Amino acid sequence: MITPHGDPLGRIGEPDIGGQCVYVRELSAHLASAGHNVRIYTRDRSDGKPSQESFAPGATVVRIPCGPSGFVPKEEILPHLPEFIDAVRNDLEPHDVLHSHYWDGGHVAGALHKEGPWFHTTHSIGKLKQAALPDKAQYRYDERIRIETDTYRGCDRVIALTPMEEDQIHQLYGVQLERIVVIPPGVNARVFVPAEDKAALRRELGWPEDAVVVFTLGRLDERKGFDLFLEAAGRVVARGTSQKPLFVLSAGDGSPQEAAERAKLERIVESRGLGDALLWLSVLPEASLPRYYGAADVFVLPSRYEPFGIVMLEAMACALPVVATLAGGPATVIEPGRTGLLVDPTDTDTFAAALTELIEDPDKRNTCGRRGRAIVEAAYSWEIIARRHAEAYDAKGGSDAR
After folding, report:
1. Concatenated DSSP letters for 330-341?
2. Angstrom distances, CA of residue 203 to CA of 197, 199, 208, 296, 369
3. Do residues 132 and 159 share a domain?
4. Is residue 23 domain-shared with residue 92, that is, in the same domain?
5. Are residues 108 and 137 both part of a single domain?
6. Who is most buried in 103, 271, 331, 374, counting CB within 10 A?
7. How confident is the model at residue 182 (pLDDT cuts 50, 70, 90)?
């Protein structure tokens, strides 16, 4: 596994530590439990973590020093990757299976690829991100799209997270459909489970028992759409509902990289008069997330563009209805009116109406939540997803791959 910018054992919610890291960690752990030897190569952020760290029998994170000490945004990591490539090259065997992640991982794998199979998971598509946030020079789209194109051409198989992403990679980058395998992310359905006693969790967390809790979380990044979430929440509060809502946002760790986005969101909170209707929490420890999902009534995924959204699966596993963005993978998972609602989060009125619909209808919330849990159990457990990856590796690599 090659994932330079995202340490799979990093604290979720810190800069550039998000769903991709959960994906790589869980996939690797479940592949290892099935008998595979998995090594994950990531950049050492000089934050005190060991150079090698085993987190499951047969699964080890290897941290490679490259570039300056400390955090480097993924958009600025490219000049430091030759150092990363040289260090990893000495640790590989010719027939190892390479599975690269994101464009930076693809760049590294392209330089390292020898005889073994090379798989690539894109996690998000540069051309679509550019369309969603077109005037953002800091994201260096031209550089990223060039590397994505080279990666798609060079790897043996592209793993798309959804049929929609399969079609997008085919249409936007000209990748032949027979070279794309669709395998979604998964969720640990034994950890993320429906709450047995929601009222007890509310008391434990100090949340009001009579409120309808609308929950969202993620990195404090404009691409995650938390400004759109707050605008819609403000519209719901201004219009009023028969049941009192409490909007809960978990995002941000106080790092300097987040300062501008935090200031923008704080201005929205003040201008929309959210006040007591909003509870803004810092990044939550990952182990505590099932309690917060369990104490909530509705989950929201407001991204401007979202390739998939593992947090969506976590919420569904906890039997929460989901209001999710139409832009990207959620549209292939959420069944509108049956497991949640799909919205254009940039349309504040429509977004607010969807939130209001679920705030006002407890029966719909419960029905959607139960259906979501059933879908997760049937199709999205990590055991199922890891087996599908192993079958893809075997089909391409044969007996020489390991």
Report:
1. GGGT--BTTTEE
2. 10, 6, 7, 12, 22
3. yes
4. yes
5. yes
6. 103
7. very high
Cross-strand partners of 340: 322, 336
Q: Compute the chain's Rg from CA coordinates.
A: 21
Domain that holds residue 365: 198-379
What six digits make up the tokens of 123? 């996690």
Q: Do 90 and 168 fall within a single domain?
A: yes
Total of domains in the chain: 2
At 179, list the tokens. Answer: 């070279």
Query: Do residues 101 and 20 touch, judged by C-beta distance below 8 A?
Result: yes
Q: SS3 for 295?
A: helix
Name the percent of the chain lying above pLDDT 70: 97
Q: What region, left, alpha or beta, does residue 13 occupy, with left being phi > 0 and alpha being psi -120 to 50 degrees?
A: left
On whether both 346 and 390 belong to a single domain, the answer is no
CATH of the domain at 326: 3.40.50.2000
Decide: 310 and 161 in contact? Cβ < 8 Å: no
- In this structure, are 205 and 317 located in the same domain? yes
Q: Distance between CA atoms of 382 and 376, rounded to whole angstroms?
A: 10
Residue for token pair 């504040």 = 348
Ranges 155-159, 160-164, 348-352: which has the least confidence:
160-164
CA 9 to each of CA 143, 234, 267: distance values in angstroms, whole numbers, following the listed order: 28, 35, 33
Q: How many CB atoms lie within 10 A of CB 5?
A: 25
Same domain membership, residue 231 and residue 161: no
